[in-house]
Design brief:
By secondary structure, this protein is mainly alpha-helical. The chain has a single domain, classed as Methane Monooxygenase Hydroxylase, Chain G, domain 1 (Up-down Bundle), CATH 1.20.58. Helix content is about 65%, strand content about 10%. The protein contains four helices and three strands, in the order ααααβββ. It has helices spanning about 10-40, 45-75, 85-90, 100-140; strands at about 145-150, 155-160, 165-170. A three-stranded antiparallel β-sheet has the order 1-2-3, with helices on one face. Strand 2 and strand 3 form a beta hairpin.
Length: about 170
C-alpha cells in the first residue's frame, strides 16, 4: 500500500478480510449445527461438531494473523501508527475503496456479534439441558444427584450410576 491517493495494493487486505469473514461465517454455521444437536440430544453429533468448532477457531486465528500482518504493512505504507485500527486504515485509503472497507468492517462487526450471541445461547441451552437431565435422573433415582457450587457460583452435579460416577459442570 502506497501513500493515500496513489495506486496502492489495498486488494490483498480486502481479500484477507473476506477470507476471515468467510471462516467466521462457517463457524456461525457450525454453531447452528451445535444448537440443533443440543436440542435433539444427539451426543455423538455434538462431540463431532464441538471438535469441528475447535478446529474452525484455529483456522480463524490463522486468517486473523494474516489480516493483522497485512494491516501492519498497510500502516507502514500509509505512515500510520503501527497499532491503527481497520477503520483508521480504511480512512487513509483512496476514497474510491473506502465504501468497500466500510462494508467489510460492518460485516465483520455484525458476524462477530452474532457468533458471541450464538455461543452464549448454546452455552445456556446446554446448561439448561444438563440441569433438566439431572432433575429427571433425580426423579427416577432419588438421591442419585449431588449438587455443589464452586466459589464463583457455578453449579456442579455428580450422579452416581451403578458404581460409576458421571460428573457434569454447569
Amino acid at each position: 500500500m502506497k501513500i493515500k491517493g496513489q495506486n496502492d495494493n489495498w486488494q490483498q487486505l480486502a481479500d484477507a478480510i473476506r477470507d476471515e469473514l468467510r471462516e467466521c461465517a462457517w463457524l456461525l454455521s457450525l454453531l447452528d449445527r451445535q444448537q440443533k444437536a443440543i436440542l435433539s440430544r444427539d451426543t455423538s453429533a455434538l462431540a463431532e461438531i464441538s471438535d469441528s468448532i475447535l478446529a474452525q477457531n484455529g483456522k480463524i486465528r490463522q486468517f486473523r494473523a494474516n489480516r493483522e500482518a497485512l494491516m501492519s504493512r498497510a500502516c507502514l505504507d500509509l505512515k500510520l501508527s503501527k497499532d491503527s485500527t481497520l477503520p483508521v486504515i480504511a480512512a487513509a485509503l483512496q476514497e474510491v475503496v473506502r465504501p468497500l472497507f466500510d462494508a467489510l468492517i460492518h460485516e465483520g462487526t455484525s458476524i462477530r456479534r452474532r457468533i458471541r450471541r450464538r455461543t452464549e445461547m448454546n452455552r445456556r441451552i446446554a446448561r439448561r439441558a444438563s440441569i433438566c437431565a439431572s432433575e429427571m435422573l433425580e426423579l427416577i433415582h432419588p438421591g442419585s444427584v449431588i449438587r455443589t457450587y464452586d466459589p464463583k457460583g457455578a453449579m456442579h452435579t455428580s450422579m452416581g450410576l451403578k458404581g460409576s460416577m458421571v460428573h457434569t459442570t454447569v
